[in-house]
Amino acid sequence: MVNLKGNKVFLRALEPEDIGFLYKLENDTSVWEVSETVAPYSKFVLEEYLANAHRDIYEVKQLRLAINTVSNELIGFIDLFEFDPKNKRAGVGIIILDDRHKRKGMGEEALKLLISYSFNHLDLHQLYCNIAADNQASIFLFEKLGFEKIGIKRDWKWTSRGYLDEIMYQKIKK
Domain N-acetyltransferase: where (predicted)? Predict the structure, then answer.
């Protein structure tokens, strides 16, 4: 049985009513460096995205799940991307938008649920992520959950602060 519910959060499929939150997130310039967004998204484009969000991970090679609090408040998204069933791996990314939900264990619980889903339901062998070297919160989170640093891409990302290194992490199923 697939368990996507924890004590603080649960993961669920995207719904059409998520459009307002998605629009706010995708057009928040403070997160564009993380998402590598370079231009705003229209509501039309995001509605089309939501209309196709039901498509199978094996077909579209990605899966975005909503992170909801147990009181059913949408607080962020967690993604599997570059899903590769042949080599049994996928990239993972997570974002919690509002600061009032950060540093409360919700991101940690969401990531634990996704790791379990990935290894036990999708039968993946490994997950990986790339984190900007100055993103201490994400580095702490992924290392806490057993992701190991496997390399550094020097001057990888251009930001408003100049070039930043990007750290590559990997978690292999035990």
Answer: 9-170
